[in-house]
Amino acid sequence: MHRDFTLQKRAILLVVGLFVAADLGLAIYSWQLASAPRTPEKEFNEQYLKLKLLNGDIKSAEAIKEKMPATRLDCEKFEQHSLPPEGIGTSSVIAELDDIAKKSGLQIVTLSNKSKELSNRGMTELTIDAAVNGDYGSVVRFLNGLQRSESFYIVDGLALATEAQNQTGLGPIRVGIHLRTYFRLAA
């Protein structure tokens, strides 16, 4: 009987040992699978598309980098030849705006300006706020006149308000215009 118990004990230990060995083998196999670089096909395709997009961005950036000196020269040429010198002054700009407004059929009601030196660019920025009265067509002609002007104007914003006297919406309108222009600093 004692012998049967020892034999049983050894059989149990052998089976447990086999289970432990199998478990250890499966653990090693699982660890190798987890550490092996594997990507499903869908993930691979997504990464390939990302790579193509990044390569396109790199090519675009390289093209921009190659064109940068020519672009810089064009900007400097524009600043030197298209922007009037600071000596021309604010009064000439205001006179030109008044002339464009008259040709467009607008009346300038208010006009204020503020200049700011942009020393890092060698320019002076002139900001102009104006309120004009007229009909829709005259406002469009005024904006078209600004666009076709020899001077360089940036229209930052338009604010529309109808005249208080005319509630039908068919009469004159008042438009607030916020624009900027630039002058070269004297060398």
Taking all residues together, what is the mean pLDDT? Answer: 86
Number of helices: 4
Distance between the termini: 116 Å
CATH class of the largest domain: Alpha Beta
Largest sheet: 4 strands, antiparallel
Helix content: 55-70%
Number of domains: 2
Roughly what fraction of the amino acids lie in strands? Answer: 15-25%
Structural class: alpha+beta
Strand order of the largest sheet: 1-2-4-3
Low-confidence stretches: none
How big is the Rg? Answer: 39 Å
- CATH fold annotation of the largest domain: Alpha-Beta Plaits
Count of strand segments:
4
Sequence of secondary-structure elements: HHHEEHEE
Specify the CATH homologous superfamily of the largest domain: Ribosomal protein S6/Translation elongation factor EF1B
CATH architecture of the largest domain: 2-Layer Sandwich
Backbone shape: elongated
Task: Walk me through what this model shows.
- The chain is α+β, with helices and mostly antiparallel strands.
- It folds into 2 domains: 40-82; 86-184, Ribosomal protein S6/Translation elongation factor EF1B (Alpha-Beta Plaits), CATH 3.30.70.
- The chain is 56% helix and 25% strand.
- It has a 4-stranded antiparallel β-sheet with strand order 1-2-4-3.
- Helix 3 (89-104) crosses helix 4 (136-148).
- It is elongated.
- The mean pLDDT is 86.
How is this fold's topology laid out?
Blueprint: H1 2-35, H2 41-82, H3 89-104, E1 107-118, E2 123-134, H4 136-148, E3 153-162, E4 173-184
Antiparallel strand pairs: 1-2, 2-4, 3-4
Helix pairs in contact: 3-4
